[in-house]
Every structure is written in structure tokens, then in C-alpha cells.
Amino acid sequence: MSRQFCGKLFSKAVTFADYGRPQEVLRVTDRAIAPLSPTGVRVRILAAPINPSDINQIEGVYPARPTFEPNVGAVAGNEGLAEVVALGEQVAQRSPNSDGAGLQVGDWVLPFRRSFGTWQTLASVEASQVVKIPKFTNVSPLAAATLTVNPSTAYRMLKDFVTLRPGDYVIQTAANSSVGRAVIQLCKAWGIRTINIVRDRDNLDQLVHELTELGATLVLTDGQLREASVRAQLKELNGPVALGLDCCGGKVSTEVARVLSHGAPLVLYGAMSKKPLTFPVSLFIFKDIQVRGYWMTRWYGQQDHETRLTMWTELLKLIDQGALQSPSFHVIPWLVPPVANADDVNGSLQTKIQDALRDYSAGFTNKKFILAMDPKLLTEKLSG
């Protein structure tokens, strides 16, 4: 959904001029698209998910800051899939072997930088700010739109801190999260076993079944992990617990650290409990555990196109082969019913997005919330 007025193109964008609660500061506006530069591309956003980092950025508590434009503010959204719709003159003339070359109209691209502003319909950017990804038969646009945060975080944490070998164990908290489910599936594909910690709940048997179907080796509640008998059983596993992944903090982090094998790293990538970490000194002295932090945005800031593309291509191949399932999606259609004027369109879309953000914050569904700008996506299979 975009429009042209007096020769200018406009993108319909979700913006914020000040930091604050998303329901209070977000507005749907018509944002003028910059003219296409010789080294630029114009892209049409197909779909963009809602992630916790998006909310934190709007609230002003996320380290990565967006760019605020006069009279518009910042465009929300960090992750998403776009399609190239126009090429700058120099981009179109590049040879296949030149830097950033190979872009054509119709290509799928992912943002190269964080704070891209994916919650909009159109954008003009430098060609260096997007990365072309290959298309696979069994990879939907919705799956590709959610590639750069959760699956990529799982991939990097499994690759970057220790050399895992088939038969090793990885222990993780919040195993039912999007990252946790990706960890389970990647480990299964690579011959690595997983110990998966979840919070106790009414539908625990159903959740255990779901995670086991994905490839989980063991599924335990955080309460069970505190039991001496369970920890004793884990000490008798026929393989090292070579890596720990934790996004909770608090007491469960301590219990996970106790299970780790000698010298194993515990990687922290979140703090859902908002509780501090407390580790016995003995774990450092006698087990030589390592406590590390991981932030996907920092990794992206240190890598080039080729390194990112290598990872994304491997993940796309796994999705295409069925070894890595897409999450179940809660799709928010960008289109609104016909209304009288542009202001009414913006108001209707703004209300729809604010309602979706309220439901997202309240946790009304376990599905991945995603904005679908392309109406064709509404007829696709919406779950993996």
C-alpha cells in the first residue's frame, strides 16, 4: 500500500516521534520516499515480524537507536523481507563479479543493518544496505521474513562459543521460545542432543510432546531441574553437557550452570526473569565454567554480506528440506477495508496495529506476530 502525489512516492509507515509505550507513540503516516540514487535500490516490504527488540526500541530501552527524520520520526521494525522493485543506474550496470552486484528486480533481500525500519511499504536505500537471498521452493516469504533474528541467534550461539560434536548435549532455558525451538531443530540436524528447560504449566504434556516432535532429547521443568535426583541423573549422561544457553536469568541460570560439564560456556542472551545472576564460586574454581553474553545485533555489526549470506543460505536450505520448521504465525493483514480518505486508512491501520501490539504484549497466543504488507501472503499456509 503506497501512493504517488505530485510525482513523489509515499510509503505508508508505522512511525514514532518520541520514545514511549508503543500503543501511545506509534502513528501510521505517509512518508515521502527519497529519490532513487545511482547506487541505490527501491524495495517493497513483503512482511515484517514483531519482536521484543522492536518493542524495546520504541520504548527507548534498546541499545540500537533508530534514525529520526524531521516531521516523520523513526520508522519502527528491524526485521523483514523485501522485494527489489527498482534499481539505480549504477547498480543495474554492475558486472556480476563486482561488489554488491547481482541485484535484479524481483529479488528477495534482507536488511543489512539494524533499525532498518521494516514496518512500512516502500523504502529507497543504498544497495549495500540489503543482502540478496536465494529463493527456495519450500521457503515462504513469511519464513524468510523471520530469518534474521531467532533462527540466526540460535545458529550463532551453537557455532561461536564451543565446537560441538555429535553426541554432545546442549542445555537451554525457555526451550519453547522461537529461539529455543530453532536450537532443538538445528541440534537434531547436526546430531547434537538437547536438555530443554521450560516453566511448569497446565498443558505441560502437550508442550513436551511438541518439543519432542521437533527433536528434543529431554524436556524438564525448572522445578524438576532443582531436584537433586534429576541433577544426579544428568551427571550420568553418556556425553558432555558442552554448552548452556539461557535467556531467563535468576535461579534457573544457576541450576543450568551446575549441570554444565567442566569448562563449558553458559551463554546469556536475555533476562526474561529480570532477576540477577548468582553463581557459587566453586563453579568457577572447580568446573571452570565460562559465562558469556551474546547480542545478535553486535554480531551483525561485525560481519560482511558474505558471512551473513553463508549463514542465511544454510538456514534456508534447512527450512526448504523440512529440517527447520517455520514458527506458527499470527498474521496481521496490512490492508484495511475501503474507507473514505487517506486519513481514515491511516487511522484504521493504526488501530489494527495497536490492537495487535496489545495482544502481543499480553501473550494471548504462542504464535509469531507478523505484519503482512503483501496481500498474497494472506492466502498462503500460515504455519510451519
Automatic annotation (TrEMBL):
GO terms for biological process: fatty acid biosynthetic process. Pfam families: ADH_N, ADH_zinc_N. It is found in: Mitochondrion. The gene is ETR1. Its EC number is 1.3.1.104. It comes from the Eukaryota. The keyword Transit peptide applies. GO terms for cellular component: mitochondrion. Keywords: Fatty acid biosynthesis, Fatty acid metabolism, Lipid biosynthesis, Lipid metabolism, Mitochondrion, NADP, Oxidoreductase, Transit peptide. This is enoyl-[acyl-carrier-protein] reductase.
